[in-house]
Design brief:
The complex is a heterodimer of chains A (about 110) and B (about 120). Helices cover about 0% and strands about 45% of the residues of chain A. Chain A is mainly β and about 110 residues long. In chain A, strands 1, 3, 4, 7, 8 and 9 form a 6-stranded mixed sheet that branches. A 3-stranded antiparallel sheet of chain A has the order 2-6-5, with no helix packed on it. Chain A is globular, with a radius of gyration of 13 Å. With about 120 residues, chain B is mainly β. Helices cover about 0% and strands about 50% of the residues of chain B. Chain B has no helices and 10 strands. In chain B, strand 4 and strand 5 form a beta hairpin. Chain B is globular, with a radius of gyration of 13 Å. The chains are: A mainly beta (about 110), B mainly beta (about 120). At the A-B interface, strand 3, strand 7 and strand 8 of A face strand 5 of B.
Chain lengths: ~110, ~120
């Protein structure tokens, strides 16, 4: 199972919005609405941000939102803040009943 | 508060074995799938294994199938990962995480495979 494809890096200024794409195949993202997103600050445990493509767990800011079209899922962060600077990962369930992560995207807040 | 605490990592020679443990509290451990995810140095997250709530179903990534074994003891709220035939590319921080959403994570246990 190959990793989902994410851009290696994205950047934005405080207050702006950015979108991170996550491209899979018909064996994962394209078939299931079981896409999740995580924020990971190095040295810390990953944080659960989005589940089932566009649902937010309680306690997660509404500045984070998810969507999907075909084989590509996306995470949008609006109103960028300095503390949003981190690595972001998507993940999908697959037709093999396993899971696959994206390669990760480093977000830099300028 | 949900807490997951991994242990058992360390330095091991290629071909060696280690067993990781993950003790879970504040969560209905026996009612949910559990997973192991790892992150090699400078790399991204990699899903490696999952186990059904009653232990009846286990699944593995191709990279570890046949070498790693996931198990659980619901009476002890503990998840395990037995790692045999370790290779340099298994060097990573290993995380346990809850449910198919990976909604709670431990702090990770570092495994270094080196001679």
């Amino acid at each position: 199972q190959s990793a989902l494809t994410q851009p290696a890096s994205v950047s934005g200024s405080p207050g702006q919005s950015i979108t991170i794409s996550c491209t899979g195949t018909s064996s994962d993202v394209g078939t299931y609405n079981f896409v999740t997103w995580y924020q990971h600050h190095p040295g810390k445990a990953p944080k659960f941000l989005i589940y089932e493509v566009n649902k937010r767990p309680s306690g997660v800011s509404d500045r984070f939102s998810g969507s999907k079209s075909g084989n590509t899922a996306s995470l949008t962060i609006s109103g960028l803040q300095a503390e949003d600077e981190a690595d972001y990962y998507c993940c999908s369930f697959t037709t093999s009943e396993t899971f696959v992560f994206g390669g990760g995207t480093k977000l830099t807040v300028l | 508060e949900v807490q997951l605490v991994e242990s058992g990592g360390g330095l091991v020679q290629p071909g060696g074995s280690l067993r990781l443990s993950c003790v879970v509290s504040g969560f209905t451990f026996s009612g949910h799938w559990m997973h192991w995810v790892r992150q090699a140095p400078g790399k991204g997250l990699e899903w490696i294994s999952r186990i059904k709530h009653d232990g009846s179903i286990t699944m593995y990534a191709d990279s570890v199938r046949g070498r790693f074994t996931i198990s659980r003891d619901n009476a002890k709220n503990t998840l395990y990962l037995q790692m045999n035939g370790l290779r340099g590319e298994d060097t990573a921080v290993y995380y346990c995480t809850t449910r198919d959403w990976f909604d709670h994570w431990g702090q990770g246990s570092l495994v270094i495979v080196s001679s």
